[in-house]
Amino acid sequence: MEAGNYVMGPNNRLFVNVKGDQPQLRFQIPYGSKYRGCAGMGFNFDFVLPVAKQYRGAVSIVNYTSPGSIHPAPDIHEFTIYLPKDYERSHGKAYPILRLSHRGDGNGQNCRIKS
């Protein structure tokens, strides 16, 4: 199948029931170069491409108190955060923030991109 085409069918369903307490939602970010931008608006999506190791930041899982939460432990919740390389040494520099919410029945790792 050509990159970027999405075909619904018995072997390629949007929602997938798995053993456990929640369904999986699958979606595709197209890879082909014709899908990585919008020339008329002056931007591209090359940020989704792999980054050379020397330029990679760090992904961390952080716990915080949250009364009533049950995951990963009673009254503890978590979020996943990505910080750019050298973030801790970039005092005063502003970075854009992208927040992904997984709703109530998941955890902060549901929004991670695996590569």
TrEMBL record:
This is Uncharacterized protein. It comes from Penicillium antarcticum.
